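Section 5: illustrative case.
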């Protein structure tokens, strides 16, 4: 039996068994613990002949997943939460069983900006979600999922699951390169050779100086870029004994370079546009005392101190040039401050323009600093932004008929506030942390033949969802000659109108079979729906709109690509 140690003094042991669908142990499978904040160092090892490995994990580690994978066998992961997104993570169980249920080969080719293959570059999937799971596993910091390209620039991922719940994008994990045009698996064509277009990173550096010109050590410098790509760069470095700092950054972005320090500030350097492979030195930062932006965050009618609340400060840089305009319009650099047990926060800033946002999204203002010694900004939260919701799922008109293993989704009426997803237990009960918004809570049984929903308000802490026979919408995806198209992604939006007129939308996916047929079960009677075909996130068909009728099957017109 193998033992995996993540620290010199183990606080917790978890026994992991890895097997195949027939119950036979799988030896040589990689097993790795993934932490929620990805800050603890990753480590992995292989299972022994009996399929067992014992993980030794620091008690302070916030483990969200235990992952097992093996080339040719597949991947599986344990979810250490009962709803997604999770609130407080529970303690890990003493024993976990993972099943590798088959794999497919996925090849990713890495090319540089001249379309030449790049060898010996590490690539990894970003996230992987299996259909039966609540959420994805984040592979970006894992070691077990990392694969190096060969002499032809090709990385072979031979453990990818046969069935994917979502598309998979690939990240480059190499200091010398970045990947603004990521490769991603099209679930409709999962066996195609994928291409990751890499760029040589750039480097910028300079010296941090005290007001009198002496080198300043142990000062954190942050460089943050914006450009066409939505994958902007944020990197930090700490000045050395000679005051020098050095940061590797993504090319084709315009950067703000700033001191991020509790003791000092410095006038930021803005408008530094970095090209591929470029080195830009002499970007010196002279320290000043700056402005102490501070205040207090209170909560509730008694104005109690609100600890662990986040204050966001976004420095506003110059407008981007036409060659960089796209996802962003201007330079920005983001800082955060957190309140202590007294509800107090403080952040030190240099002169400039900033967008200040409190714990509530509505508490946003633009602040211009020009050398003031101190600026005060207090925030008040009328109630906790998030709270625990408990509920149960029962059949309509049958209070003594709880529905076990029902799947529950909830969506908020507030744009930008995520809902949650969870399952009911054997007694039909569930709980999840949620935004204190008006929400629609939707549930359907495991067989997907019954569904229902309930509305909740901001102050509700308990909900009962009753389900009844639902609608199954069925259709086909065909080409212009009427030939069926298998493995296409049918995307359905089901709209629910609340009593106050608010519209809440639920999203479901279905994959076409060999006959080009897709099925969308569990739709609510009388709901307005539409369905189209996606490739990645892009629609490639016209939209078919329909309103569900009585329970049973609704036949949809063919969708032609």
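Designed sequence:
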């Amino acid at each position: 039996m193998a033992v995996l140690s993540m620290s010199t003094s183990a606080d917790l042991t978890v026994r992991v068994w890895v097997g195949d669908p027939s119950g036979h142990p799988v030896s040589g499978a990689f097993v790795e613990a993934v932490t929620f904040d990805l800050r603890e160092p990753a480590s992995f090892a292989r299972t022994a002949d009996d399929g067992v490995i014992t993980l030794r994990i620091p008690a302070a580690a916030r483990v969200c997943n235990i992952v097992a994978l093996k080339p040719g066998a597949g991947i599986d992961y344990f979810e250490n939460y009962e709803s997604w997104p999770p609130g407080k993570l529970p303690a890990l169980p003493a024993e976990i069983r993972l099943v590798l249920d088959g794999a497919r080969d996925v090849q990713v080719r890495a090319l540089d900006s001249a379309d030449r293959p790049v060898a010996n570059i590490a690539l990894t999937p970003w996230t992987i979600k299996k259909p039966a799971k609540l959420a994805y596993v984040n592979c970006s910091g894992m070691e077990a999922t990392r694969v190096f390209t060969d002499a032809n620039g090709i990385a072979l991922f031979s453990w990818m699951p046969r069935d994917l719940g979502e598309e998979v994008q690939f990240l480059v994990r190499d200091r010398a390169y970045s990947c603004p045009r990521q490769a991603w698996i099209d679930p409709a064509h999962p066996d195609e050779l994928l291409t990751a277009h890499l760029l040589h990173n750039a480097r910028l550096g300079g010296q941090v100086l005290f007001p009198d010109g002496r080198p300043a050590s142990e000062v954190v410098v942050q460089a943050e870029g914006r450009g066409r790509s939505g994958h902007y760069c944020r990197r930090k470095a700490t000045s050395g004994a000679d005051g020098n700092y050095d940061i590797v950054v993504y090319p084709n972005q315009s950067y703000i370079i700033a001191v991020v320090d509790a003791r000092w500030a410095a006038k930021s350097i803005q408008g530094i546009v970095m090209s591929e492979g470029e080195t830009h030195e002499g970007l010196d930062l002279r320290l000043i005392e700056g402005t102490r932006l501070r205040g207090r965050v209170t909560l509730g009618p008694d104005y109690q101190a609100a600890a662990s609340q986040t204050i966001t400060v976004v420095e506003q840089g110059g407008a981007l040039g036409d060659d960089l305009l796209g996802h962003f319009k201007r330079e920005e650099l983001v800082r955060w401050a957190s309140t202590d047990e007294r509800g107090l926060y403080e952040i030190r800033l240099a002169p400039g323009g900033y967008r200040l946002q409190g714990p509530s999204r509505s508490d946003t203002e633009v602040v211009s600093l020009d050398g003031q010694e101190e600026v005060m900004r207090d925030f008040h939260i009328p109630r906790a932004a998030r709270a625990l919701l408990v509920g149960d799922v029962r059949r309509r008109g049958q209070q003594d008929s709880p529905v076990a293993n029902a799947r529950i989704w909830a969506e908020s009426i507030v744009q930008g506030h995520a809902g949650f997803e969870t399952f009911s237990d054997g007694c039909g009960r569930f709980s999840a942390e949620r935004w204190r918004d008006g929400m629609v809570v939707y549930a359907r049984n495991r067989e997907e033949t019954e569904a229902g929903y309930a509305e909740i308000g901001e102050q509700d802490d308990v909900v009962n969802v009753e389900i009844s026979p639902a609608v199954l919408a069925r259709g086909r995806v065909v080409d212009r000659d009427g030939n069926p198209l298998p493995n296409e992604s049918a995307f359905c939006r089901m709209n629910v109108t609340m009593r106050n007129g608010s519209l809440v939308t639920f999203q479901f996916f279905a994959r076409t079979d060999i006959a080009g047929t897709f099925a969308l079960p569990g739709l609510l009677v009388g709901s307005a729906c539409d369905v189209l075909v996606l490739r990645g996130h892009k629609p490639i068909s016209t939209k078919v709109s329909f309103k569900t009728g009585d329970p049973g099957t609704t036949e949809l017109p063919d969708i032609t690509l």
